[in-house]
Amino acid sequence: MALPTPLQAFSAVPKGPTDRQTITEGEKMTGAAALVRSLEELGVKDVFGLPGGAILPVYDEIDEHTKFRFVLVRHEQAAGHAAEGYAVATGRVGVCIVTSGPGATNVVTAIADANMDSVPMVVITGQVGVGAIGTDAFQEADIVGITYPVVKHSYLVTRAQDIPRVLTEAFHIASTGRPGPVVVDLTKTAQTGEMYFSWPQRMILPGYNPTTKAHGRVLGDAAKMFSHAYRPVLYVGGGAVRSGAEAEVAALAKLTGAPVVTTLQARGIVPDSDPCCLGMLGMHGTVAATGAVQRCDLLVAIGARFDDRVTGDLGTFAPTARVIHIDIDPAEIGKNRVADVPIVGDVATVLRDLMPQIEREQHLHGKPNLKPWWDAIDELRRDYPIDYDRPEDQPTDGSLSPQWVVRQLSDQASKDTIWVAGVGQHQMWASQLVDFESPRQWLSSGGLGTMGYGLPAAIGAAIGSAREFHGTKPVWLIDGDGSFQMTSEELATAFFGRLPVKIAILNNSVYGMVRQWQTLFYGHHYSATTLHDGDATDATDEMEFTDVPDFVKLAEAYGCVGMRAFTEEEAIEAIRKANEINDRPVLIDFRVWKDAMVWPMVAAGAPNDDVTFRPGIKPLRQGPVAAGDAVVTPGNSSASV
């Protein structure tokens, strides 16, 4: 029998008079005032949200004297994504405050997104009064129960006196160990009740003690594996970014000579200009990155979780490799791939402790000769680079090549630009073609793949840039016409915030990634993927579906600058103008080819050895690939060095 959720269990308890106040030391105030004061004491500078009845006491305490900036969004989901974008761009905990019922349920998608991508976030939701819980009161929803599978932790707060302690614990839990979202469900009883405020608060967290430092024996075992590896690869994930381990990853790559491949979330942790960086691996990764992992003899997973979009068919992933897995979350180690050396700990701390052990091994036994390995990798890089069809080479209707647009955006942007993407083809092209030179420069929904993430996350990043970097890091959002329309109302938030977010919509009038799959796997049956929002020719029942919506007019309706580009000359000029505008949001509607596809590609569930560089070209299935001083033939996992 299923156990009751916390709110269900609470509603079954007989309700008596509210517990009498037993703490009388400190400043007397309401719970709502205590929440605002707690956020200020915790150093919160920016909060996103939308008011409603069950959270009004808290909003009543927010005024011009409040020490944090409050950003009013137009939809609660956007509040969550903006908090995510803020957190990823700055490294701070993102905060949002929404009301009960539909307000709380609207933010569930953002909570699940943050949970999948390990984003530190505190979500404060209103809840009906204690006496009304379990009565199906107006706008009552069991948000603790609803979010139970997709949060790191959650609280149901019924007493005002508990608010400072709960907020202290929530921020600590969200930002330590494996970061993630924490929900604080605040009853109206707790908000209006009186309490005595004091600071700092003592946390009560028995059993919560994340391991940050690895055991010495496993470090020694890992160092020995490096000394016997002739085809090593560092497989770096988003956990390394969350740990702030960019310097340690670069130092390990230099010390061992191993190439670095990254997941989608780790783009930029090693600069693309660094020769050791092979780019992203997996479904739409580079052939060199995917090929290196498939042929390696030592795979060092650093803050990565062996996601299916990385591994393809798990049984054939990196078949000749021994595995070192470093992660702060012990639940991830061995979940998908058994590790020969499992190391639980904070990535940056573990790598700092591991490198002296590797140096000792190198001093005793020398450093393996990796030249043959790099020769094989460089051959893959040379023969199968990330490239795309030029407009003159493709059977188009005269529209732009979307990949060319992304390349131009990158070439004309500042090297400090923070790049944000929605979800779809444009997301993959951005990850492939934008030049990333630093971590926290790339924001995208990875694990959950949330369309609509882009604009609110860009707003959060822009506010974070203004707060932490004095606005010196511009923000570009690369979005699709389908993804953008899911949260386009947040143009109002961007306008009233005077946020100079630059928005590039790759408008192909279709749900591009779904259409690509329909083309490749569903016999060109384009069911429910045509949007007509940039289609100037299609007509049904004599009603023309032309520019619905008109993105330029939409931008202007929200007070933003809108531009449209059909040709390369228009595109280059629009990008130049957008980069010069710094007092309001700018949107460019790029009309791009609807049949462009993302290559390379590994079909879902297929072996990574089947990576397709272009239709009919499978580089890892075409003859032997030299690796170390052995020849590893595709499909042969018994090769030895």
Automatic annotation (TrEMBL):
Binds 1 thiamine pyrophosphate per subunit. Keywords: Amino-acid biosynthesis, Branched-chain amino acid biosynthesis, Magnesium, Metal-binding, Thiamine pyrophosphate, Transferase. Residues 422-590 form the Thiamine pyrophosphate enzyme TPP-binding domain. One of its GO terms (biological process) is isoleucine biosynthetic process. The lineage of its organism: Bacteria, Bacillati, Actinomycetota, Actinomycetes, Bifidobacteriales. PANTHER family: ACETOLACTATE SYNTHASE CATALYTIC SUBUNIT, MITOCHONDRIAL (PTHR18968:SF13), THIAMINE PYROPHOSPHATE ENZYMES (PTHR18968). Residues 221-354 form the Thiamine pyrophosphate enzyme central domain. Its cofactor is thiamine diphosphate; Mg(2+). It is an enzyme of class 2 (transferase). Pathway: Amino-acid biosynthesis; L-isoleucine biosynthesis; L-isoleucine from 2-oxobutanoate: step 1/4; Amino-acid biosynthesis; L-valine biosynthesis; L-valine from pyruvate: step 1/4. This is Acetolactate synthase. InterPro entries: Acetolactate_synth_lsu, AHAS_TPP, DHS-like_NAD/FAD-binding_dom, THDP-binding, Thiamin_PyroP_enz_cen_dom, Thiamin_PyroP_enz_TPP-bd_dom, TPP_enz, TPP_enzyme_TPP-bd. Its EC number is 2.2.1.6. One of its GO terms (cellular component) is acetolactate synthase complex. CDD domains: TPP_AHAS, TPP_PYR_POX_like. One of its GO terms (molecular function) is acetolactate synthase activity. It catalyses: 2 pyruvate + H(+) = (2S)-2-acetolactate + CO2. Residues 29-144 form the Thiamine pyrophosphate enzyme N-terminal TPP-binding domain. Belongs to the TPP enzyme family.
